[in-house]
Amino acid sequence: EKDGHDWFMRKEIYEQPQAVADALLGRRTPSGALQLDEMRLSEQELRDVDKIIVIACGTAFYAGLVAKYAIEHWCRIPVEVELAHEFRYRDPILTANTLVVAISQSGETADTLQAIRHARVQGSRVLAICNTNGSTIPRESDAVIYTHAGPEIGVASTKGFITQLVASYLLGLYLAQVRGTMFGDEITAVVNDLEEMPAHLQTLIDRKDEIYALAAELKDARSVLFLGRHAGYPVALEGALKLKELAYIHAEGFAAGELKHGPIALIEEGLPVFCVVPPRGRDQLHDKMISAIQEIRARGARTLLLVEEDDPAVASYADSVIPLPRVPVLLQPLVAVVPLQLFACELASLLGHDVDQPRNLAKSVTVE
Ligand code: BG6
To answer: Could you tell me what this protein does (predicted)?
Structure first.
């Protein structure tokens, strides 16, 4: 079943171009408008939404953080993102106009399930982003966007995560269409960008040997840091989580702007730091990231830069460059996460760990 691969996780990483293509299948009407087939909420209900709360656990929570950047930008609806177990027990403010979005690969995570039950009792609508047809969370939700990644066996989510990102973007674009916060051709342009993703992901996977060589070089690292900003910040968190759960190496993800408020104290000679560099654009994100990289490099960090190809500004600050295809900043998580998945999978494998079944973890946690 592993098709000749040593681990399901590796196979599932390589399946991501197809998973993203499947997640996008059938989302446009003949006239080019977006459609979501199990969106059982009416257009009026979606226009009435005045707040979105995304709830999830683990990797799915990081997909939720990306969703916030996209949905707030495209739809101008306030979006909160919260760990399901924290949300459930803090008396959150919920009304009939709150849309709760539950993201769960398995659809069975008890923390997330309890949270949606709580939200529905309070009268809020719940939309599930889920990979498992007919599982409990979508069954108990008002609407669902299935991610269509296919079965995911590796405990650490990869194609599940990447298709949660796709579903989150589709939700944001659909809300923008219904609420009129974007022009039709703007929505179409983003959908076109999404449809180019399978080819971009394949390019990254074809370059896997460079990442595997890096993993071999860094296999004795005792700690690894990850920096990002904007939509790259959740990618940094996800890169760190993957390394913790698979390789059992201390790893932390930080927002690059937060460095000077604390984490920079951790930087010492030779410490590997992955940096997700935002694409060059009209905003200052890219330049601010470059100055963060200069700061840590001056203090001895070994800088591993995930950066769009042919970015002339970074060469002199990079110990290693991991080239990314040129994509809009909001979509960059789709491409930036892939090298980090490959890195964690390979490093854990080199260390002799069970990549598919990391110690102490379960694929689906059905107890609170
Ligand atoms: C964890 C899994 O316990 O549950 C993670 O080990 C996963 O990989 C998290 O991200 C959430 O799971 P789900 O199925 O709700 O997305």
So the answer is: Catalyzes the first step in hexosamine metabolism, converting fructose-6P into glucosamine-6P using glutamine as a nitrogen source.
- Cα separation of 241 and 156, whole Å? 9
Q: Is ligand 1 within 6 A of the CB of residue 106?
A: yes
Catalytic center residues: 363
Residue 248's region, left for phi above 0, alpha for psi from -120 to 50, else beta, is left
Q: How far is the CA of 112 from the centre of ligand 1 (A)?
A: 10
Residue whose tokens read 């040997």: 209
User: pLDDT (tens digit, 9 = 90+) per residue, 181-236?
Assistant: 999 999 999 999 999 999 999 999 999 999 999 999 999 999 999 999 999 999 99
Interatomic CA distance for residues 159 and 45, integer angstroms: 31
- Residues 130-172: tens digit of each pLDDT: 999 999 999 999 999 999 999 999 999 999 999 999 999 999 9
- Best residue among 345, 355, 364 to mutate for probing ligand 1, ranked by most atoms within 8 Å of CB: 364
Q: Single out the residue of 48, 318, 12 nearest to residue 162, CA to CA.
A: 12
CB atoms within 10 A of CB 5: 13
Task: Single out the residue of 159, 185, 306, 169 nearest to residue 235, CA to CA.
Answer: 306
Please give the Cα distance from 289 to 314 (Å, whole number): 10
Q: Which atom of ligand 1 is nearest to the CA of 106?
A: 14
Q: Give tens-digit pLDDT for 5-62.
A: 999 999 999 999 999 999 999 999 999 999 999 999 999 999 999 999 999 999 999 9
Q: Is the CB of 105 under 6 A from ligand 1?
A: yes
- Beta-carbon contacts of 30 under 8 Å, excluding residues fewer than 6 positions away, are none
Distance 121 CA to ligand 1 centre (A): 24
Best residue for ligand 1 mutational test, from 365, 366, 367, 368 (most atoms within 8 Å of Cβ): 365
Q: What percent of the chain has pLDDT over 90?
A: 95
